[in-house]
Amino acid sequence: MPQPDRHITPHDALLVVDVQNDFLPGGALAVADGNRVVPSLNRHIAAFVKAGALVVATRDWHPPGHGSFTARGGPWPPHCVAGTAGAAFAPGLALPPGCLVVSKGERPDGDAYSGFDGTGLAATLRERGVQRVFVGGLATDYCVQATVLDAIKAGFATFVLSDSVRAVNAHPGDGRAATLAMQSAGAVATDLRGWAGGGTP
Ligand code: VGL
Ligand code: ZN
Prior knowledge:
Layout: E1 12-17, H1 37-50, E2 54-60, E3 100-104, H2 121-127, E4 132-138, H3 140-153, E5 157-166, H4 174-185, E6 188-190
Parallel strand pairs: 1-2, 1-4, 2-3, 4-5, 5-6
Residues 60, 62, 68, 76, 79-80, 105 line the site of zinc ion.
């Protein structure tokens, strides 16, 4: 595999996936250590802003009584109901001015794990000249995986921020399997160490 150009540029975008209260410890659908992605994401956000790159934050944004909730036969407890505290971004997440917020899962039926599903995100990124996307957030085995696979399908060179994702692991090994699936599809894992303008010195 060719080595990527290790500079963050304005043709890059950071996709912060679903870092919302309901996915953090104490939330309705808590991801173990979900809060641990916040400090590293904040460092990545600062680096992307400094490089003039776009920051996108996706959010799970369901209507009450969404089809994915257990009461309707879905797999999940009620979570991320639009406008509730649980659906709000984690308070410690330093989303920048100019951050593009993408809501998904708004249709009453059917789930939308990917930030590209029904949101127009691929077109928006192309219009802005984005060629590479860097994906972090929650959860590795659901929305991060789906977003990464769609980004690859849409033709973006796609990186997974290995220090900034956590898995639900509803079945043991789901997170690991998702990581392998993303890599087999062509995603490159990085923590941006050694990148100009990124990572921790
Ligand atoms: C997610 C389960 C249900 C996620 C969203 O953001 O990974 N997982 N809805
Ligand atoms: Zn959901």
